[in-house]
Amino acid sequence: MPREIWVLVTAALAVALGYGIVAPIIPQFARSFDVSVTAASALTSVFAAMRIAFSTPGGKLIDIFGERKMYMTGLLIVALSSAASGLAQNYIQLLILRGVGGIGSIVFSVSAMSLIIKLSPPGQRGRASSLYGSAFLLGNILGPSLGSLLAVWGMRLPFFIYAGTLMISFFVIFFALPEPHRQEISKEEGGIKPMTVGEAVSSPTYRAVLVTGFSHAWTNMGVRLTMIPLATGVAMGYGEWVSGAALTAGAIGTAISLVAGGGLSDKYGRMTVIVPGLVVAGIMTIIFGTLENPFLLVSVALVTGLGAGLIQPGQQGAVADVLDGRPGGKVVSTFQMAGDLGQIVGPLLAGLIADNFGYSYAFMISGAILIAAVAAWLPARGDSYLGYRRGSKG
To answer: How confident is the model at residue 159 (pLDDT cuts 50, 70, 90)?
Structure first.
């Protein structure tokens, strides 16, 4: 694996560790300004909404100025907004600053994924993606534990710590990652232009990736994290240990399969790994909603995580296969936007379903959405292997 990939993995770990520390504090900090639960929840929504709003402009800026420059720019934006959030004197200030942070977040996350795609050898794209994803997962697991230890120092401190970890990531990229070679964007004959979203959508693999990204974010990144604490705590009346154990088991399962899934997708093709991941995670999500035994809940959450972990490296590798070495910031940002949309819509609709019909229906429909995404891969049966075959020849 190229040295540059390990630099990106190190930077990702620093970012994720800081985010894991601050994320649990944000709703509580908002409530300290004497606002409603709905208003506190809006901080998450405005962050995601700004990511979606700036996905396309961010992708265009990446194509113009390059991934490394925009990665560092995004890190700076989030670092400054986080530090300013720690100084916020009222809810409106905090809401605005979270929105600004969403802009920086989409810029650096799309830039990072574009760098992973550009710097990974064709035959190791899935493994590189799994390493990067594992760094984020590890940071998100360790961060909340550290955050709880720091809680005695007040709710403002985590925002400054997050700003600090972002600056660590900034300097790691600044000093350790050289400017990658950029193919010139020119109108002259022979000039290589960025791939447009329209070109990418003509590929059945890219269309399948958009559907998978939306479904995966809906269920595995949105509903699972939001509904498990509510279902086990409110509906079933278990203590916090059940929801904590279930979420931890899911994260462990995801970490295990992330490591394996990247290499398997490089060796056997993206579809061969993604489709089983969708089916396993979908079925287990449906089953989870029917269980009441706490030990079975934790066990099923572990298997759900195993399925979910197979999806991420495969789909990011598939995006790299579609680009095939061409620049394509807008192509990457559109993929990210599909996931952000799923992460916003999924928990909201699942909450409505749970309120009106019960938690079991919310989990059942969310699991069915994952399984339905398998259909999007049927037209891509041949196309989804092209990246692996090209890489294996090189």
So the answer is: very high
R_g of the chain computed on alpha carbons: 20
Distance between CA atoms of residues 120 and 3, nearest Å: 10
Backbone conformation region of residue 191, classed left if phi is above 0, alpha if psi is from -120 to 50, else beta: beta
Q: How many CB atoms lie within 10 A of CB 194?
A: 19
Domains in the chain (CATH in brackets) are: 3-176 (1.20.1250.20), 197-393 (1.20.1250.20)
Q: Choose the most confident range, by mean pLDDT, from 1-5, 166-170, 226-230.
A: 166-170
Amino acid at residue number 390? R
What's the token pair of residue 265? 């997708």
* Token pair of 21 as six digits: 């520390």
The answer to whether the CB of 165 falls within 8 A of the CB of 14 is yes
Pick from 144, 155, 88, 113: nearest CA to 313: 113
Nearest residue to 388 (alpha-carbon basis) of 331, 320, 335:
320
CA-nearest of 128, 203, 198 to 381 is 203
The confidence score (pLDDT) of residue 49 equals: 83
Structure tokens at 232: 């086990």
Contact 22, 78 (CB under 8 A): no
pTM (2 d.p.):
0.78
pLDDT tens, 207-217?
A: 999 999 999 99
Pairwise CA distance, residues 139 & 77, whole Å: 20
CA dist 88 to 85, 96, 98, 116, 180, Å? Answer: 5, 10, 11, 35, 38
Residue 51, amino acid: R
